[in-house]
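Per reviewer request, we include the raw input and output of the structure prediction for the construct analysed in the revised manuscript.
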Amino acid sequence: MTLWVSSLDRAFNPSATTSYTFRVGSTAPTVTPAVPAPEFGRPTTFTFRPDAALQSKSPVVGYSVRTVGGVDDDRTIELAAAANGTARTKLTLDGVAGERVEVTSRSANGWISDAASWGIFYDTTPVVASSAYPENGSGGGAGVPGTFTFTFTFTPRVKGVVSYTYSFNGDPEVTVSADTHHAASVEWAPASEGPYDLQVYATTRSGIQLTMYDYSFTVN
């Protein structure tokens, strides 16, 4: 912050202006998940701790926890703090591209702290592969069948994938069930040569539609 000051004489003539700049320390709490990278869709305990200077002036009595980017986007949870100013709760992060947790503390004197922010990125696109029709390459031919496999190999892992939905060049979507290893394969033969775009997304057991992946190739 900067304070600007000038003086006035009796005739209200102003002096030159001087400035005084200082930095206000953050009062944001700390946000700590039980594991560094919580798994997608799995409940994880988060611990919230108050800023030490703020706690010494007026004890923190509660927290407002806001999650952004999940299936239930922009939800807020109010938590009471323990005597030492800490609080814990379980959060299930299910944002298909990741999720952010924003937290403010509330002190006994009514002060609302700065917001702390913690976030994680999830890549929930499936892995698509085909030996007959390689991605960004060319192969096969009109009427030549090829097998396309859909799998998940991400960390933090996405569990509970039950199906894949795909479409070639905008044709009607087709859904196939995933096996016990969360994978599936389909056989397809192009009607003609030229460029093709395969779009694939997975769906979890709880009905969450994950991020779509575009797989491009050319038919000889």
